[in-house]
Design a protein that fits this description.
heterodimer; A: mainly alpha; 9 helices; B: mainly beta; Maltoporin, Chain A; 22-stranded antiparallel barrel; 5% helix
């Protein structure tokens, strides 16, 4: 009996003490799950709530920005794009304020610029492509071995090179190099960005075609 | 033992019981449910997403005073203070965000060139890719409705107004001498290279109380806030050379831009209608320094321009042509700061100084003048919410002008003036809803030289009529000091005055824009004088008056045909004035009743080329024939000019650019100059005022050197 009570007491106390970190992990885990299921609005909502608590953690804001940007690439409806991108930019600005010199955030920023380019290449192409490249160069200087930096930069450059008919071999070599980096890459926690390997493999398949 | 256990269980259940349920409904302001809104307690993990009926329910362990937050894409985030223990289910109404792109915009009278703004008529790129504009900002604006084509001037003439009825501003600070040096009846260009500017607003009337001392129009140019990257641009042109370089540091950047233009080699090859002794030569440069602070941005802009030319101008009044030898020195600097402070406050302040010196030899006589012009400005804005803000501030202008005419036979005449103008303005922007917005302001001005004050009310309203359409109206009074040509001889004047009434309809969908505007302008107190031209001994008064009314239509479409972007501008204007030395109220000689511009740009992917075609047409302009009794009764033949350009991208950073203006070589006549006295047969002889050359050819090679290799100078061509 005593044992049961003791364990129950420990259980309750444990619950009370462990509440704060576990709630974060629970929330993040749930949001990641919803996102994988394609429930992006719900996932964003949870990340947003987490961001309102975790004022010194850049990750929830990062995911709000990232999901809303990806939404623009996936969606056929162009009219909603500015609203998504504004939301993404706001969240990213919050994240950058928390963590100013962060290569992952720079990659996300470059992706927001790329999304603007996709909306209206004629009007936005020139302006945002140099802004995007600037982010990639900055990210590269901070984290030259980050696979997402290496891959995203190469993928962005391939777009331009294909158009100009210049050689894409150097970029393909970079994508290949990123595969090795992906294999070596260990995210700090389970919730730190770790995406990209499948996309890099896909991009490499299309290389040289 | 049992009691302890019961106690513990009770404690545990109590902690379960301490969870409070928060529920309610989220709707828009018309009561329609919103699905997918994020409802949560700020600073807690507790929250949920509203369902299809807008209903939400969640439990929280938080206590006491909390903030309930509701967010939803393109709606304003709502924060409600609640007390958890006494919370009752409630309906939360969200308001659509007025910051979104589909909110109503005040558009009467305004053309914008910028990014992501639906009222943008032009994109920054257009300044330079428009055939016939030749990289001149003013040239590109002349393809918009409301601007007249006045080929012998090259300046902006807006809606029946003269060119000096437009004021130009860089970063909110006035530019006293926006145009380059030129001789009588030869077109000039704007001094500013499009290279350094990212945003532009061209107002053809009804503009904000922030700006004044301009009867017709303001042109607002903004230098880029941030340099994209370090780069070097080189230009090799048939008319000269140019180079620019941008350096970037952590918080600041510096761009400088310099060019040397010499038309001599070109004019040796291509026949000119003007007898140049020494063709136009200039050395000019601009530089911008930007420094960003945590809450603000400081910019310093400086430009210099040294130009000289010498030509023999035919004059119907003399057997031998008049030799004009001009040397112009111009310097402009402008520093501005824009920042935010406190809660919702922002400040914009700056100072500019412009210096211009002309040394003009007219045969054996000399005309020398010098102008110093400064502007100081302070503007404060308080944002009360996303929907209401209040702007107020003041301007202080100082102009100092001296001129000496050295007559070979009669000696020197020296004259000039000094004027200081103080102005104050206050204005508020109010969004009543996403559909209805208003801007109401008033501006007061006092000129030291005239010794008089004015108060100008300005009002504009915009209402969204459908998903893509909106109607705007604008009304305003505008006062301006009489122009330099008069003030240098005489100062006992009143302000010249206009009142604008504008009705605007704007329809914008993705890639297509229709803008139609009708306007009426009432001119009062215009300056009149009683001599051939304004002189020191002329009799002046403010008894002139007039009107201008008309219709402007603009249509732009870059969606219907792939890779084709085109626009059509049409202006109809009916304007009459009795001013200057006019004998009666007539249509002035710079007004053409109908103006039509067609601009097309076609991108050929396989050739990596952009072809651009511009056709400008205007009906004939009046001129006065002293051989007839009726005043200003003549009319020139209509004007037409077809221009083409071809930009070829050799590689991503190397561009070859060809352009020809007036391809068809139309002999356009802008007016006639008549002799001051009749010949022996009693007839006044005349000579036509025509183009300096039938066509203008241009070939340039533009090379950008930068780290990322993606940027090029297409936007500067």
């Amino acid at each position: 009996m005593i044992r049961i009570i003791t364990s129950l007491v420990f259980f309750i106390c444990g619950l009370a003490f462990a509440q704060s970190p576990s709630q974060y992990e629970q929330g993040m885990g749930k949001a990641m799950g919803l996102w994988k299921e394609g429930k992006t609005a719900e996932a964003t909502a949870i990340f947003e709530r987490i961001a309102s608590v975790e004022k010194t953690n850049w990750l929830p804001n990062y995911y709000v920005a990232f999901i809303n940007t990806i939404e623009v690439f996936k969606s056929q409806d162009k009219s909603k794009a500015p609203a998504y991108l504004d939301k993404a930019q706001q969240a990213l600005d919050n994240a950058t304020a928390i963590s100013p010199n962060n290569a992952e955030l720079m990659v996300a920023q470059a992706m927001i610029y790329t999304a603007w380019i996709v909306q209206d290449p004629m009007a936005n192409g020139m302006k945002y492509s140099s802004k995007a490249m600037e982010q990639y160069y900055k990210a590269q200087a901070i984290a030259p071995e980050n696979p997402r930096v290496v891959f995203s930069k190469a993928e962005f450059e391939i777009g331009g090179a294909k158009y100009w008919g210049t050689d894409t071999k150097p970029m393909c070599a970079e994508i290949e190099r990123s595969l090795g980096l992906f294999a070596k890459f260990k995210p700090e926690t389970a919730f730190h960005p770790s995406w990209g390997l499948d996309r890099a493999q896909e991009a490499l398949k299309n290389c040289g075609k | 033992m049992k009691t302890v256990f019961t106690f513990l269980v009770a404690l545990y259940s109590m902690s379960l019981l301490a969870q409070t349920t928060i529920s309610g409904k989220v709707t828009d302001n018309k009561g329609r449910p919103i699905e997918g809104a994020n409802v949560f307690i700020e600073g807690a993990y507790d929250g949920t997403t509203s369902d299809a009926k807008g209903d939400f329910t969640f439990t929280t362990t938080e206590k006491g005073n909390q903030t309930l937050v509701v967010t939803y894409l393109s709606f304003e985030t709502q924060r409600t203070a609640i007390v958890i223990e006494t919370y009752q289910p409630q309906t939360l109404k969200l308001r659509e965000s007025v910051n979104t792109l589909d909110a109503v915009v005040i558009s009467a009278g305004t053309f914008k060139a910028g990014d992501n703004s639906k009222v943008s008529a032009l994109k920054p790129l257009d300044i330079v890719t428009t055939a016939g504009a030749a990289g001149d900002i003013i040239g590109a604006l002349q393809t918009l409705p409301g601007a007249q084509i006045v080929g012998e001037s090259g300046r902006l003439f807006v809606r029946g107004g003269e060119s000096d009825e437009t004021q130009t501003y860089v970063d909110g600070i006035r530019v006293a001498q926006p145009y380059g040096a030129t001789a009588n009846n030869l077109p000039t260009r704007g001094r500013f290279s499009p290279f350094l500017f990212s945003g532009m607003t061209f107002s053809t009337g009804g503009y904000s109380a922030e700006f004044g001392d301009a009867l017709s129009s303001v042109l607002l140019l903004n230098t880029t806030n941030e340099a994209d990257q370090e780069q070097t641009n080189l230009s090799f042109m048939t008319v000269g050379l140019g180079a620019s370089n941008t350096q970037k540091w952590k918080k600041s950047s510096l761009t400088f831009n310099t060019s040397y233009i010499n038309l001599e080699p070109y004019q040796k090859v291509i026949k000119q209608n003007v007898d140049w002794v020494k063709p136009y030569q200039s050395l000019s440069g601009e530089s911008v320094f930007r420094r960003s602070f945590e809450n603000g941005l400081f910019k310093f802009y400086a430009a210099f321009d040294y130009a000289m030319f010498n030509l023999n101008q035919k004059d119907v009044n003399s057997v031998t042509p008049l030799n004009v030898d001009t040397k112009n020195n111009n310097f402009y600097l402008n520093s501005s700061y824009k920042g935010s402070f406190g809660s919702g406050w922002s400040i914009q302040t700056g100072i500019s100084f412009g210096f211009s010196q002309n040394k003009i030899g007219l045969d054996v006589n000399d005309l020398n003048n010098r102008e110093n012009a400064s502007h100081m400005k302070l503007k404060l804005t308080k944002k009360f919410s996303d929907r209401i803000n209040l702007t107020f501030g003041g301007d202080y202008f100082i102009t100092d002008f001296d001129e000496t005419y050295k007559d070979y036979s009669f000696g020197d005449f020296t004259y000039g003036y000094r004027n200081t103008i103080g102005a104050a303005f206050v204005e508020t922007d109010i969004f009543f809803s996403k559909k209805l917005a208003a801007k109401v302001g008033v501006r007061a001005m006092n000129s030291d030289l005239l010794g008089k004050s004015t108060v100008d009310p300005r009002v504009s309203l915009a209402y969204k009529t459908s998903k893509n359409g909106q109607v705007s109206v604008a009304y305003g009074d505008f006062h301006q000091n009489p122009k330099q040509d008069y003030l240098k001889f005489h100062s006992d004047f009143n302000y010249e005055k206009t009142t604008h009434y504008i009705l605007n309809y704007l329809y914008a969908t993705n890639g297509k824009t229709l803008r139609a505007e009708v306007f009426f302008k009432d001119y009062k107190d215009l300056v009149k004088y009683d001599s051939n031209m304004p002189l020191f001994n002329s009799q002046y008064n403010n008894n002139g008056y007039g009107y201008a009314k008309g219709l402007d239509v603009f249509w732009r479409d870059n969606k219907s045909v792939k890779n084709l972007d085109y626009w059509v501008s049409y202006s109809f204007i009916d304007s009459k004035r009795d001013y200057k030395n006019y004998e009666a109220k007539v249509t002035p000689n710079f007004v053409a009743n109908h103006t039509l511009s067609l601009v097309g740009k076609y991108w050929i992917n396989d050739w990596k080329s952009q072809l651009s075609v511009t056709n400008s047409f205007a009906t004939g302009r009046p001129y006065d024939n002293p051989n007839e009794t009726a005043f200003m009764n003549g009319k020139t033949k209509s004007y037409n000019s077809l221009s083409m350009s071809w930009a070829y991208l050799l590689s991503q950073q190397k561009i070859l650019y060809f352009s020809v203006s007036n391809v068809l070589g139309n002999n356009n006549v802008f007016g006639y100059q008549y002799a001051n006295s009749p010949d022996l047969a009693g007839q006044f002889q005349r000579q036509a005022i025509t183009q300096p050359a039938d066509r203008f050819f241009f070939i340039g090679f533009f090379w950008t050197i930068s780290q990322d290799k993606s940027k090029n100078q297409l936007e500067n061509l």
